[in-house]
Amino acid sequence: MRKIFALALAAITLLPAQVSAQDEFTASVSGSLVSRYMWRGIDMAGPSIQPSLTLGWKGLSLDVSGNIPFDKEDVRDIDVTLGYSLYGFNIGVIDYWTADVDPKNRYFYYGGEAECPHQLEANLGYTCKYGSLQAYTMVYGNDYKIDGDRAYSTYIELSVPFRLGGLDWDVRAGVTPFESAGSTYDETVITESGKTKTVTRGDWMYGESFTCNMASIRATKNLEFKHFNVPVFVELHTNPYLQRANLVFGVTITSL
To answer: Which of 24, 127, 136, 238 is the most exposed place for a label (fewest CB within 10 A)?
Structure first.
């Protein structure tokens, strides 16, 4: 893990100074209420509260966000992102922590990758007024193929924003270029003869090969008040690979 952080910090320090970056330190807080927690085509949890704190300085950013579900059986997580942006290009490292992966529910535990509640993901991308292209690869944590090899689960997403009918729209598509992390499970099925048998099936985080595992369209209306913004959105979030879809409603309060 130390090597991963060292490489990320080295990449950041080797980049030239950002001439156009704002010199002042910035900070913002926000909180979202969502009808369903969807992430990269994966149905993570039901109704949830999602707080976020973002700090920025000269192109550097630190974002701490998470998911607090209403149902205690759903996924609870904390995500910490360290990033740097320059002329539209961005590089970063994301630390995902998921409660209950470690039986002792320890946040500061990084040992034993198979039981580690943390996953580290490297991010590289580019953003301009026409859209954003981002690539993410898991580099540490419980991220193994069904055969036991390291998966390096990778997700690539294209986002295109536009404005129509007084609303801000965002169309996204996400793919995985190869087999991602996965596991097997047993399922009892009924055969044509009416008998039952147990079959072993695979379950992948993104997919078993190149596949489109996320396609979404979101419409947002931004309500402005004196000291904060309140974006309200509706999103159709689908997973073409699994042939699933969810309609999500959300509202966010963001400090100015």
So the answer is: 24
Could you tell me the pLDDT band of residue 22, with boundaries at 50, 70 and 90? low
Q: How many CB atoms lie within 10 A of CB 13?
A: 8
For 240, the 3-state DSSP assignment is coil
Distances (CA, A) of 233 to 35, 48, 247: 11, 15, 11
Under 8 Å CB-to-CB from 177, ≥6 apart: which residues? Answer: 154, 156, 210
Distance between CA atoms of residues 68 and 110, nearest Å: 22
- Residue range 119-142, pLDDT digits in tens: 999 999 999 999 999 999 999 999
CB 236 within 8 A of CB 221: no
| 71-93: burial string, b at 16+ Cβ within 10 Å, e else | eeeebbbbbbbbbbbbeeebbbb
Angle value at C-alpha 234, between 127 and 219, nearest 5 degrees: 45
Question: How does pLDDT run across 152-169, given as a tens digit for each residue?
Answer: 999 999 999 999 999 999
Are the beta carbons of 152 and 181 closer than 8 angstroms? Answer: no
Which strand (E) or helix (H) includes residue 5? helix 2-14
Mean residue pLDDT of the chain comes to 89
Q: How far apart are CA 15 and CA 211, in angstroms?
A: 33
